[in-house]
């Protein structure tokens, strides 16, 4: 008997309920605007730094009445759409390939982890030198470079986190690999988008889709239906690969029983002896591990050799020879400028990141547990996280100043959103049976929060923190390029202005190494904290 999930309710009542939620969310926005108007009118916050929302709205309406504003908006949307389209075309197929092959993933992981922390803003000096006055192509290049890494990483993680039962089911029904990549993998929550609205996590299944799937499975099963004696199989019927001869299945059961008896006998005699299957499995794992390590070392070496050959033969002013870049790296970063530029940058990065992690987890837990508050805050969160970080630089400089506190505040403001959204998604998406079990056993609210809910949501929380780590590096460089006297961003910008391209590339190289090392440290911490999660997934596989 086929058991279907309860379909999502529909009708006038559901429509009115959704309209009420929308009006409630809009009411939250109105309340925030009124509070901001009151705070600025009473000069609790200086109006010269934060003008009243009414003044901002009137100014915006006036600017939208000019054709120059609309041409600027269209030009921005054009660069954004083209850059995002290029990133999608490159990142999604490449992520599907790397996520579905362990060897390809291991081989390219060092290169990806080295390149993705490099901020696109750090390439602005090079873009100015390469494209000159043709800033349209430069904007498209920067937009594509910035968007390709989150898309690639989320696609890889989404493919690698597909449940093994889904892949086994697709394999047993002989679904083609192309259909698996297009239908099974995107069904994994957050495979490419990285975030799903918490209110949409528990919707019922579509009964029409279930009927279509059921009819399709019945068509596939016709090959296994009994036939009258003497009737031959048609030429259009294929024998399934997983259906074995009864004699082979019996022999396999006998062999497994012998191995089980041998293992029990070895344990009884206090001398643990590995079975043939275990020894073969260990040899296969050892061989695969050797191939993975070789690929993880060989491909980066080949890439470095390719860069060395290209820079020595191209003779380009913008791409100095690799040995010159390494000499500049040794001169600047081993260890002359480390206390001057690297240490202040790391202090700002870690301070802003830790502030964002603490606030993001606390607010995410609160919004994840309180549904009505989550609906009220969602429009405000979506608006604030969509503000480009460079657009906040003038405000932070004017409101806070040019010291390190402004840079830390900017890093924390941008890094908080992925942590907040993933925490909220993880808390709201906990299975109801877990909450019911905790209630039945009379577990205290504090223990339920710390040991049940946070533990169940910790994989998604760490996913948000991993996403925020490259953002912290990017914002560190952006904040140090404006109104700063030290830091990696300041060093890269000054090297471009003085046409010291070897020094500029040495700073970019240091950013890549820094991002790779920080990601390595974060991975080690994540493996230690989420050891139970990795063990559960390994057991499921």
TrEMBL record:
Q: Which residues form the ABC transmembrane type-1 domain?
A: 342-526
Please name the Pfam families in this protein's record: BPD_transp_1
* Topological type in the membrane: Multi-pass membrane protein
Record flagged with keyword Iron-sulfur: no
SUPFAM superfamilies, per database record:
MetI-like (SSF161098)
Q: Where is the composition biased (Basic and acidic residues)?
A: 201-216, 223-234
**Assigned keywords, A-Z:** Cell membrane, Membrane, Transmembrane, Transmembrane helix, Transport
Location of region: Disordered = 187-234
Residues that span the membrane, as ranges: 20-42, 79-99, 111-132, 138-159, 289-310, 350-371, 383-402, 408-430, 468-492, 504-525
- Chief place where the protein resides: membrane
* Compartment(s): Cell membrane
Q: Which domain of life is it from?
A: Bacteria
Q: Which InterPro entries match?
A: MetI-like, MetI-like_sf
Query: Gene3D superfamilies per the record?
Result: MetI-like
Q: Which family does it belong to?
A: Belongs to the binding-protein-dependent transport system permease family.
Instruction: Please state what the protein is called.
Output: ABC transporter permease subunit
Q: From which organism does this entry originate?
A: Microbacterium elymi
């Amino acid at each position: 008997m086929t058991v279907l999930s309860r379909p999502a309710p529909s009708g006038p009542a559901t429509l009115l309920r959704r309209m009420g939620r929308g009006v409630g969310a809009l009411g939250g926005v109105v309340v925030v605007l009124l509070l901001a108007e009151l705070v600025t009118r009473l000069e609790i916050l200086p109006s010269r730094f934060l003008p009243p929302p009414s003044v901002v709205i009137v100014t915006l309406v006036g600017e939208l009445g000019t054709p120059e504003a609309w041409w600027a908006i269209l030009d921005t949307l054009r660069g954004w759409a083209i850059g995002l389209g290029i990133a999608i075309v490159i990142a999604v197929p490449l992520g599907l390939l790397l996520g579905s092959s362990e060897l390809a993933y291991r081989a390219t992981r060092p290169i990806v982890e080295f390149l993705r922390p490099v901020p696109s803003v750090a390439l602005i000096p090079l873009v100015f030198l390469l494209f000159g006055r043709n800033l349209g192509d430069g904007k498209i290049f920067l937009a594509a470079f910035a968007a390709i890494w989150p898309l690639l990483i989320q696609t890889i993680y989404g493919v690698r986190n597909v449940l093994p039962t889904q892949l086994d089911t697709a394999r047993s029904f002989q679904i083609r690999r192309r259909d698996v990549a297009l239908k099974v993998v995107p069904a994994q929550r957050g495979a490419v988008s990285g975030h799903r609205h918490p209110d949409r996590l528990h919707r019922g299944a579509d009964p029409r889709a279930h009927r279509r799937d059921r009819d399709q499975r019945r068509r596939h099963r016709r090959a296994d239906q009994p036939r009258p004696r003497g009737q031959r199989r048609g030429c259009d019927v294929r024998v399934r690969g997983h259906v074995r001869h009864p004699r082979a299945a019996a022999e396999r059961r006998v062999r497994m029983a012998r191995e089980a008896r041998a293992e029990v006998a070895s344990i009884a005699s206090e001398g643990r002896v590995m079975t043939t299957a275990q020894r073969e499995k260990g040899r296969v794992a050892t061989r695969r591990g050797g191939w993975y390590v070789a690929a993880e070392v060989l491909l980066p070496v080949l890439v470095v050799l390719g860069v060395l050959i290209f820079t020595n033969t191209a003779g380009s002013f913008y791409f100095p020879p690799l040995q010159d870049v390494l000499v500049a790296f040794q001169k600047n970063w081993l260890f002359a400028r480390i206390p001057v530029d690297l240490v202040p940058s790391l202090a700002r990065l870690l301070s802003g990141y830790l502030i964002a992690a603490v606030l993001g987890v606390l607010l995410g837990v609160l919004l994840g547990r309180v549904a009505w508050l989550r609906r009220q805050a969602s429009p405000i969160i979506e608006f604030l996280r969509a503000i480009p970080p460079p657009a906040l630089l003038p405000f932070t400089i004017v409101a806070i100043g040019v010291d390190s506190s402004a840079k830390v505040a900017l890093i924390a403001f941008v890094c908080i959103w992925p942590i907040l959204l993933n925490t909220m998604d993880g808390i709201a998406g906990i299975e109801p049976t877990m909450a019911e079990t905790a209630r039945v056993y009379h577990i205290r609210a504090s223990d339920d929060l710390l040991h049940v809910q946070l533990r169940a949501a910790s994989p998604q929380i760490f996913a948000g923190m991993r996403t925020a780590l490259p953002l912290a590096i990017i914002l560190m460089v952006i904040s140090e390029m404006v109104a700063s006297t030290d830091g990696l961003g300041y060093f890269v910008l000054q090297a471009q202005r003085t046409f010291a391209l070897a020094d500029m590339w040495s700073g970019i190289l240091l950013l890549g190494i820094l991002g790779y090392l920080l990601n390595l440290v974060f991975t080690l911490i994540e493996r230690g904290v989420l050891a139970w999660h990795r063990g559960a997934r390994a057991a499921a596989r």
